[in-house]
Design a protein that fits this description.
This protein has about 350 residues and is an alpha/beta fold. The protein has helices at about 10, 20-25, 45-50, 55-60, 60-75, 90-95, 115-120, 130-145, 155-165, 170-180, 180-205, 225-240, 260-265, 280-285, 305-320, 340-350, and strands at about 80, 100, 105-110, 150-155, 210-215, 250, 270, 290-295, 325-330. The chain has one domain: TIM Barrel (Alpha-Beta Barrel). The chain has a 7-stranded parallel β-sheet with strand order 1-4-5-6-7-8-9. Strand 5, helix 12 and strand 6 (about 250) form a beta-alpha-beta unit. The model has no long low-confidence stretch (mean pLDDT about 95). The protein binds coproporphyrinogen I.
Length: about 350
């Protein structure tokens, strides 16, 4: 494998951690758990660390990004860290006019909605990702045998922000572009595919033991459009990192109809959102595929009894799959009481 000889999978024993073993299809002593958005606004120590530093600057300041990545591991004893960064960080690294505004998410100076604009996109040298390598290296040094999960945005989701110039509900920008100007769509999605692969490779080379490709908004396309206009760009990212041999998770929301195609794109683990039960997901993708998910984030604030019962149901339905990595069906809501997450981890570990 292309993995450096000093990598934590080889030297720190992350390969024997419950998290990585589950991703490879095993059922360790206790079900491993991490939470999407475990680092972030639900934690007072995160708000304190971020005070006065804007989001993208925080992501590109290695010691700060590393500290924020470690916070939820210390507090909740989750089985993995997820690298603190954002899916638009590669766009910033590429020198594009992008920012992340509080309460709004990513915003572009101007949308990439025509061939003229898209033709301006630069090739990015791998060295531009050095702050990312540095933050990952600092982090894995502290994590020991707990694995770090690296991540990147999938081409459709990142291109949706670029084509629209910011957040949107229906993602009409990219979905129209696929048909109105397929060459422009190909150029845009192809460019994102390359920078997302560079972003993931930098994280793996610096010490990430697994990666997740986030296609959060893939659920807004039909299976036919996914297979015709989206899948090959995601497959490009996943195949670019295949030679490293680290497990690759593929996640999106509203993807019940896309799970099979998302697996076929080259995933080792399929992430399932809260809209479909894990036993049904296992039926669709095949029982030999490890699944990740899918506690409904809405239930974190519904009272412990309700959450506990729901979690038991998720754990039980997860037995239909080859292996189960426990997670939420989407990110931790910012208003979540962190004590609930700590208690939930404890409960899952005792199950
Ligand atoms: O703990 C972790 O999970 C690591 C941190 C992380 C991750 C994995 C952040 C920090 N962002 C992401 C990925 C990301 N960014 C996704 C995929 C995951 C998902 O679906 O939740 C998406 C869609 C984005 C884009 C984005 N960035 C949004 C969503 C906006 C929308 O269109 O609805 C937002 C709000 C951001 C900003 C952001 N990223 C991360 C944090 C902690 C924040 C909030 C920034 C702040 O403190 O103001």
């Amino acid at each position: 494998s292309r993995l450096p000889s000093e990598h934590p999978l080889r030297t720190a024993g992350t390969d024997r951690s419950p998290m990585i073993r589950a991703m490879l299809g095993d059922r360790p002593e206790h079900p491993p758990v991490w939470f999407m958005r475990q680092a972030g606004r639900s934690l007072p120590e995160y708000r304190a660390a971020r005070e006065g530093t804007n989001m993208l600057e925080s992501c590109l300041t290695p010691d700060l990004a590393s500290e924020i990545t470690l916070q939820p591991v210390r507090r909740h004893h989750v089985d993995a860290a997820i690298f603190f960064s954002d899916i638009v960080v590669p766009l910033k690294v590429a020198g594009l006019d992008v920012d992340i505004l509080p309460g709004k998410g990513p915003v572009m100076g101007a949308p990439f909605n025509s061939m003229e604009r898209i033709a301006e996109l630069p090739e990015v040298p791998d060295s531009a990702f050095d702050p990312i390598r540095e933050a990952v290296a600092l982090t894995v040094e502290q994590l020991g045998s707990t694995p770090l999960i690296g991540f990147a945005g999938a081409p459709f989701t990142v291109a949706a922000y670029m084509a629209e110039g910011g957040s949107s509900r229906d993602h009409l920008g990219p979905r129209t572009m696929m048909y109105r100007d397929p060459e422009a769509w190909d150029a845009l999605a192809g460019w994102v595919s390359r920078v997302s692969a560079q972003f993931l490779s930098a994280q793996i080379e610096a010490g990430a033991s697994a990666v997740q490709l986030f296609d959060s908004w893939a659920g807004s396309v039909s299976e036919r459009d996914y297979r015709e206009h989206v899948m090959k760009y995601s497959a490009g990212v996943l195949s670019a990192v295949e030679p490293y041999g680290v497990p690759r998770i593929h996640f999106g929301t509203g993807t019940g109809e896309l799970l099979v195609a998302m697996k076929e794109a080259g995933a080792d683990v399929v992430g399932v959102d809260y809209r479909i039960d894990l036993d049904q997901a296992a039926e669709r993708v095949g029982r030999d595929t490890p699944l990740q998910g899918n506690i409904d984030p809405a239930l974190l604030d519904a009272g412990w009894g309700v959450l506990q019962k729901h979690t038991m149901d998720v754990l039980s339905k997860g037995k239909a799959a080859a292996a189960h990595i426990v997670n939420l069906g989407h990110g931790v809501p910012p208003g979540t009481d962190p004590a609930v997450l700590t208690r939930l981890v404890e409960f899952i570990h005792e199950s």
